[in-house]
Amino acid sequence: MGSLGSTLLIVIGAVIALALVAAIVYGLARRRAARGTGGEQRPLDDAVKSLGGQAPVEAPEAAAAEEAGGAAALEVPEAPGSRLRRLRERLAGSKSALGKALLAVLSRDQLTQDDWDEFEETLLLADVGAAASDEILEKVRAAMRVEGASADRVATLRRELLAAVDTAAPRTVQDQGEDGLPGVILVVGVNGSGKTTTIGRLARLEVAEGNSVVLGAADTFRAAAAEQLTTWGERVGVEVVRGPEGADPASVAFDAVAAGIDRAATTVIIDTAGRLHNKTNLMAELEKIKRVASKRAPITETLLVLDATTGQNGLTQARVFTEAVDVTGIVLTKLDGTAKGGIVIAVQKELGVPVKLVGLGEGPDDLAPFDPEAFVDGLLA
Fold first, then answer.
1. Alpha carbon distance 122, 242 (integer Å)
2. What's the pTM?
3. Angle, to 10 degrees, between the axis of helix 195-208 and the axis of helix 223-236?
4. How far is the C-alpha of 216 from the C-alpha of 254, rounded, in Å?
5. Which residues of the chain have pLDDT under 50?
């Protein structure tokens, strides 16, 4: 009888314990239902897990909705005005070796011929180019002769550098078409100059300005180029038109412009191959791309991407591309106001084409319209 009583007590105790657990779980469930499922805590799941069980799996519909919500979270590119101010500050704080060297010469009391030779050599080493260096030298020298000892040498140098950097040619990128057609921007440049990355950044800049964009991956020579463009496009909701590896670049460009027209896009930006192993083939390919794409809508802008650190080599590249297509603007990447900043002056003077956009960093929004005054002030900071 004692054994039976002990067993009965154990059973009663177990029932009471289960009832208490059930009451706790039920209470937690009620609290969760009253609070809703939007909070960060999941008390019912935690209570079940504490009892050694598994938390209930979310319904497939809920998981799909969460996944769809994540995919729809596109990046918001930085506004043009904000990025321009930031890039001006970065350029002004670059502590240019070129500006320091020029000002060091001009700060001397009595400038001899050796000093002026050093001044010109500094310009040449900065890739300003022979013709532009000679012109700047003569203008600064003449101004200081006229103004005499009272001359503000920093102001004189700034004025003459700005005159060399500035140009009457418009710097606005022609990204708008006419008669309801999109603007079509053809982007050229050697592989390795940052061309495809520049296109991705340009697409972000266009989106930030409220434009709808279609990208054309016409560099079919490099499979990675199309993948890279697609990644850039997905981040800001921009469609990328691409073909199979080795496809005819002109046909991809044609399809991209057609897609831009069908979708009433504001701007179509077309990437192109940049290999220079055969100048004749490159020119023929670029000419064909431009001719075929123009059958759907006129090319409104042809941008040449140059790596500012390549200096005079960049000029050689620029000449090849300007022979192939009518380049209307330059994009200088890696322009940080260092000793090689003179390429801005050289490329504009040699080619008669304005620098329209500059890249000053590695970030996705480190691309902005070129500002001559900010550039010169950065050289002299």
1. 46
2. 0.77
3. 20
4. 9
5. 1, 25, 28-70, 277
